[in-house]
Every structure is written in C-alpha cells, then in structure tokens.
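Hi,

I'm pasting everything inline rather than attaching a file, because the server keeps stripping attachments. The sequence lines come first, and each chain or strand is labelled.
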Amino acid sequence: MSGSNGQVIQVDALSFSYPDGQRALDGLSLAVRDGEKVGLIGANGAGKSTLLLHLNGILPSNGHVRVLGMKVEKANLKTIRQSVGLVFQNPDDQLFCPTVGDDVAFGPRQLRLPEAEVAARVRDSLAAVGLRGFEARSAFHMSFGEKKRVAIATVLSMNPKVLALDEPTSNLDPKSRKELIRLLRRLGGTQIIASHDLDLVRTLCDRAVLLSKGKAVAEGAPEKILGDAALLEAHGLE
Amino acid sequence: MKHGFLDQYSALESPIHRLDARAKIIAFLALIVITVSTPPDAWTAFLGYGAFLAVMAAASRLPLGHVLRRAWIIVPFVVMVAIFIPFMKTGGAGGGYSFGIGSPGVQRSGLMIFWNLLVKSGVAIFSAILLSSTTPFPSLMRGFERLKAPRVLVMLASFAYRYIFVLVDEAERMERARDSRGYGGRWLWHAKVIGQMIGTLFLRSYERSERVYVAMVSRGFDGRIVASSVSLRSSERRAETRMAAGDYAFMAASVGFFVALRVSA
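And the predicted assembly:
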C-alpha cells in the first residue's frame, strides 16, 4: 500500500507556524522509503518534533504530507494513526493507564479489535520489547528505561508500518541506552528517529537529515553528515 | 514503590482481599444505601452495621492505625459541619442558635440529627476505606466497569490514580529546588513562594494534560471511550469475568444481613 515509488512518507514543502506565530517548519521536504531508518538531527527548536506530529495528523498539513500514498487528512486519519506509531519523548505522557497491559491495549481497543486479538497483541508487543509478563504492573513503579520500552510497545500493538520516535535515548543511562538501540535495531521496519544523540543516528540509521530553522539543510549517509564538523557547528550540533 | 500512601495495603493476603472487586463494591454500596435509609433511633441496626465493618476490618488484617488515620482525614470535616446542629433552635428560622441562655439550649431533636449525620457518614467513610484498602486500584476500576458504571467516571478516576504519583514527584522536585536555593525568611514570603509553586504546578499539569491527550489521539482516540480495563491474560480473564461461589455467598450474606437489620428496625 506504499506510494508509487516505494515511499512510505512524503513530505512536500511543508510549512507550519504555531498559533503564537512561532515558525516551526519552513518549506520542509522529506521522503522516506519502505524499510529505511532515517535520523532527524538538529538543535532544539529545529522542527524535529513538529515534523513528527505532522506524520500522524496531530497538526494539520493541508495536503503537504502523504503517508503510504494517502493524504494526511480527516478521512484517512484512522488508518494513518494506525500506520505511523508515534513514540513521545516523555513516557509519562504516553503511559496514561493504571496498568501496563491497559496502556499497550489502548490502541488496539480504539481499533475495536476483538478482545482475544487485543490480548495476543499485548502479549506479543511486550515480548518484542523484552518485557514479557509486565501486563499487571503500574507504569509509575518502573524504571525510566522500562517505561521507554513500554511506550514503544504501546504503538507496536497497533502493527504500525512506520515507527516515529522522538528522542528515544534521552535521559537514559548508558546501559539502558544501549539496550534501547539494540531493541530498535531488532524491531527493524521503517523508522524515523528524531534525536540529538548523534551516536545513535550513526549506529542505527541509513540516512541522516539535518534540520535547521524548519528546513532540511543537509542529508546523506550518517558518516558523511556527522563527519562534517563545520556543518554541525553551523547548525548548533557540535 | 516511592509513594505507598495510596495502594499500600491493597495487595495484602486475606479472605477479604481475595474477594472479587464487584462483590465488595456491591456489598459496601448496599451497606451505605441501607444505612442512609435507616431511622436514626434504630440502635440495634447501627450496632449491626458497625459490627459488620469491625469484622471486615479484622478479617482483612489491615493495621488498625491505617484505617483510623485514613478516617481521620475526613472526620474533621464532617464534625465541623455537624457540630452546631444540636444548638439550632427548633421551629425557628434558619440560622437561629440557642446556647442555653434563657432557653432549653441543646435540643433532643438536634442531638438526634447530629447523631444521624455522624453515624451515617462514619459508616460511609469506613466502607470506602475498607473497600479501597482491600482492592488494588486497577481491580477496583475493572470492577466498577464490569458493573456498568459510567466509563467517563471510571476513566477519570484511572487518570487521577495514574497521575497523582507524577504530580507528587513534580511537587517534591520543586520543593527540593526551592530549598536548595536557600528557602527561608518571613511568613509572608513563604506564602508568596508556596502560592507561586501551586500556580506552576497547575500550569505544568495543564501542559502535561495536553501532551497526554496528543498521545491518546495519536493512538487512535476519537473521543469515544472503549472499555479500558478488561483483563488480559486468558487465565486471569476466566478468573475475573466470573465471580466464584464464595463471592456470591459473601455478597448475598452481607446484603441479606443489612436488609434484615433494616427491616427489623
């Protein structure tokens, strides 16, 4: 169901300003192919998170964003939100149910899946992030690294085509960070990772896209972009 | 477990803890409704209700101190409201008090109203404490949901439970930040700082609520609330969707007991 040329995400000259007038995206274009892992890098305020919110139709894109060939607009939102799994930076915002099981089941239940299917998806998603049997636990009583992994499980349970992750390694200690990188590699599939963890992008991504002031100013192989000290410095990353 | 104050004892092992949440909800709800409908001079009935609560407390192995401390949070409010009732003049216009100067003072009917309020609120308070201290919160929510309580209410309560911990953490961090910058000085200054902290806490919670909402929307939330807490593991599901014979027996015995007391009153 992907676009004409194997592209799962097409962003075409997307501009966006927040209601307070702050310009977050300024004619940004980006294409992501099926199975590709793309790292979005850029300083704070470069527009990374704003872009991710557009992929899911949280912010209006007026036809400038296509997911799996579908325009991001009201009629397609249900399918698109199922296809693009958005993992937010702070797991406390993403895990809002009394138990981990309820949180992971939230998406599938919104899809009105039968309860047996929901249970199977919850079990599989938790197993995929290495937290088998955590259903009855409460998110509050878990470590930050575990919460991050549960947050990923909450979107895996919707069988997304694309994972969009906002700062997946922020606030993690080195061990949890390493585990999370291993997990993302194991999960495979199309992934869009917004981060200023340059090392994460280098080890995990096929392509790096440098955002600055709402524009994509450079893109290419991670070694090339991340090896260009002058470029990184000019855009607040070194 | 950093904040044990909410669910501290709900995971204890006791016959009461093992009962199905629905059986407990119905029994305690029946107790409250029947108590409220009991005339205040039905002394034996109230004795019976009290005995039921005492037996439940003992059987649940909850520390007595915990139950009393919980009650102590609410009781002062009830007493504050009720304390002036005995002094109200009967038959007079609202707001007339008599403190025994040239008049009979405390009225018997006033005392009865006072007793009525005190004992009935007492039964309700202890019922709520026993129910919430013997049932883990998620099970309690699931019980209410299965009993067809409005989903919006169940969801709101679940959110409150989920985020009260986050909020307490946030307040603690702010307190620490304040103290580390040399919090001190006069009372007026304190009041101002605390006021600002409360304001900041409110703003942060408000912003968090928006982020939570976005997270819900991005997972397909469309404003309609789907039954959110059906149990997940198949073994657990079987165990939880069907109440055991013991649950029915407990429910029937307690409700029957209350009704008998009420009818004989």
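Strands of chain A lie at 7-17, 23-33, 37-41, 65-67, 70-71, 84-87, 162-166, 190-194, 207-212, 215-220.

If the labels don't parse on your end, tell me and I'll reformat.
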